[in-house]
């Protein structure tokens, strides 16, 4: 009887250790976000002026770039290095996304990768799209996840003055960059109504950017391929076009060309990183060539060594063989 009672106590303690409670102010914000954001669609077509629509579209693009190019590819996975002006620009863009500070989002995303399709993943990658897209962001971390977050190496961000500045002053930056800029500009400078400025400039824009940003942690449910899937051409589709996007990204995340929305090399994020490289704002772009992936897989099979280690080794050899003036490894891209 004592063993049974002790077992029950241990199970209760373990359940409490893993329990996640709702963040009710955030839940209420999401309810308003969806209701007022959808109403913003009506206001967009009914009364918003073209300057407001164009300005809001630009802010929406900037917010999306802040999440995808900034948080995801630069700070979370270090797929390239950025100059200080580019970091400041991406930091401000990310602030307009309203997802929380760069530091907190990156920390959670790194845990998401470390515990992908495990119970400890804060974005429920084992469950469903709606769990990952919505529920994961509305719950507090469990005591177990809080402990795991402390184990995530964040030393690179802690040494980044721009990231830590945003973390310290996030609330003020959020008010000025995400709320006042988006609402006050159409109202004061474009002569638009306060209704259009609020419902289109803030609520509709926030609805779009937050949901696009959440796809970073949930899109594998949309574009993931089932194990029984047989491509019509051959399995070389993985090596040539990387159509197995989620499998590729979660195995080899340090590729600047891996799009968040199921694409590879063709998305706006990848294009913008190449533009930044052309402007000499982005350097050390990391990517995995098809030949290096194929040779790394072959080496892993032949030697029994870890797949990722073998592929990384082949990528290094491939980079060393590139011409000295190639934009992936030269000091200045012209």
TrEMBL record:
It is found in: Membrane. It comes from the Eukaryota. The chain crosses the membrane at residues 27-47, 53-75, 169-190, 202-223. It holds the Pfam family FA_desaturase. It is a multi-pass membrane protein. Its cofactor is Fe(2+). InterPro entries: Acyl-CoA_DS, FA_desaturase_dom. Keywords: Fatty acid biosynthesis, Fatty acid metabolism, Iron, Lipid biosynthesis, Lipid metabolism, Membrane, Oxidoreductase, Transmembrane, Transmembrane helix. GO terms for molecular function: iron ion binding; stearoyl-CoA 9-desaturase activity. Residues 49-235 form the Fatty acid desaturase domain. GO terms for biological process: unsaturated fatty acid biosynthetic process. GO terms for cellular component: endoplasmic reticulum membrane. Belongs to the fatty acid desaturase type 1 family. PANTHER family: ACYL-COA DESATURASE (PTHR11351), FATTY ACID DESATURASE DOMAIN-CONTAINING PROTEIN (PTHR11351:SF26). The histidine box domains are involved in binding the catalytic metal ions. This is Fatty acid desaturase domain-containing protein.
